[in-house]
Each structure stands twice: as C-alpha cells, then as structure tokens.
Design goal:
By secondary structure, the protein is an alpha/beta fold. 38% of the residues lie in helices and 22% in strands.
Length: 261
C-alpha cells in the first residue's frame, strides 16, 4: 500500500468509525505507529480530521472527501463498473456524465471504445458534463463531441455548479444520463453530499430520456445530505457486488433494474 492509498484508507476508516486510535490503525494497516501519526497530522493540517491524544476523530469533511483521496477507494470495482456501463453507450448518442470517481472511470472506458468512431463527418457521440476532470479526459478524443457546462468549480469534486451551469442544461436533451451518486436508497432515491451538485444533477436527470446510476456496493441503501431525484426517475442501477436481499427487493419493488458486474 503506497502513501496515497494509505491516506485514503485512513480517511475512510475515520469517516466510518468516527474515532480511531493510532495503535489500532498501525496494526490494521501493518505500518508503524510513527507512520500513522505522521499521516494523521498531515490530514489534520488539511482539516480532513481532528487530531486527538492518541488518535483522531472525524469532522463533517470526512464524509465528503476530496476527489484525489476518493480515487484510491474501491478502484478495481469502479474500473469494472466503468467498463460495463460504457457498453451501454450507442453510436451517435448524447450522453450526460456528472462528476465523481466512478463516472471518471466510465468516461475513460467510453473514450477507449474506438469502435464507436464509424460516423463519417459526424461525432461518434456527444458527451455533456459538468466535471472538469472528465472534460480533460475527453477533450482530446476526436470521436467525442464535448459539451461542458458553465458554473463555479468545487475544488473537492472538480464539478461545476451554480446558475451558470443550469443555463446550458436547460436548453439540451440527453439520450442517456450516467449518474454517479453518494447514496441511492430504493425508497427515497439518489443522493449527493453537496446541495449544489445535487441541483445540477437533478436538472440533468430532468433532461434525460434514460437514467443509469453507477454506484459501488457501499452506496446502495444509503442516503446523503441532498436528494438528487426520486427512485422513480432511475431506470437502471449498475453496481459491483451482490446486494443485500432487503435492498435488492426494495429496488425490484420500485421497478428499478439492478445489474451486478
């Protein structure tokens, strides 16, 4: 485990448990206590947790981690989801992608589908996104027509939010929206940590003919601060692992298809 992965793991553990002890973390991660102390000090300097005598406690920030830390969490699972969801994209489609580590993997998988590029004189597909990192991945792909919303960038997620983003989305239609979420509950719907991101994502849902939620297993059956849309607006959920029976039954009752990859 490199330092980047270790920091990501530490943040995830602090966010899950609320409080951690240096010696316990050192044993679980198979590193020295001195290493854990340095890591916790580093994360505390960035205000991602609060240092205590002998450990650390979570702050609200721990539940909305910066993208650079999230990227190392469940990376193989997200890559697998990305490859499978990318296959849902048809030539000539207009596809929406919001920000997040899972949707970034999907964007990379879409870009790798060179077989889509068989439309002389026309783009193989059009991608509409409010995520700066996804825009960077796709801007150099000649078979993709890229549309980036306006808005103010959030440093944590690289997503553009605010009224400047809604102006673009109000005037377009999407054949398919691939939606990354912070939680999706079969009774309540899809959620994001940040209300500004939820607002933009909600408008993307409204403009889409079909909505596919891409979420690793840790997001299923969970809610976050701001609701994006009710579950009735979701057509398909693609995830990476077997789903708890009660949650699976909830999606079925709501008429939402669930695909495990």
């Amino acid at each position: 485990m490199n330092r980047h992965e270790r920091l990501s793991g530490l943040l995830a553990v602090v966010g899950e448990r609320g409080k951690v002890v240096v010696e316990v973390l050192a044993e679980e991660l198979a590193v020295s206590a001195a290493t854990i102390r340095r890591d916790l000090d580093h994360l505390a300097e960035q205000q991602l947790l609060i240092r205590t005598r002998g450990g650390a406690i979570a702050t609200h920030v721990s539940y909305d981690l910066p993208l650079r830390y999230k990227s190392a969490l469940k990376a193989p699972e997200k890559s697998r989801i990305g490859r499978n969801v990318a296959l849902l994209v048809e030539p000539g489609a207009v596809v929406g992608l919001n920000g997040g580590t899972t949707t970034t993997e999907i964007a990379r998988a879409i870009a790798a589908r060179t077989e889509l590029d068989h439309r002389p004189g026309r783009p193989a597909l059009t991608v509409v996104t409010n995520a700066l990192d996804i825009a960077g991945e796709l801007a150099v792909r000649r078979h993709v027509k890229l549309v980036v919303t306006g808005g103010v960038a959030r440093p944590r997620s690289f997503e553009l939010t605010g009224p400047l983003a809604t102006g673009v989305l109000a005037d377009i239609s999407l054949d398919l929206l691939i939606l990354g979420v912070d939680g999706i509950d079969p009774a309540a719907g899809a959620y994001a940590h940040h209300e500004g991101e939820a607002d933009i994502n909600r408008l993307m849902v409204e403009r889409a003919a079909r909505v596919v939620v891409a979420a690793d297993g840790s997001k299923l059956g969970k809610r976050a601060f701001a609701r994006i849309c009710p579950i009735a607006d979701v057509d398909l959920v693609v995830t990476d692992a077997p789903v708890v029976a009660g949650v699976e039954a909830g999606f079925a009752a709501a008429g939402v298809r669930l695909r495990t990859v």
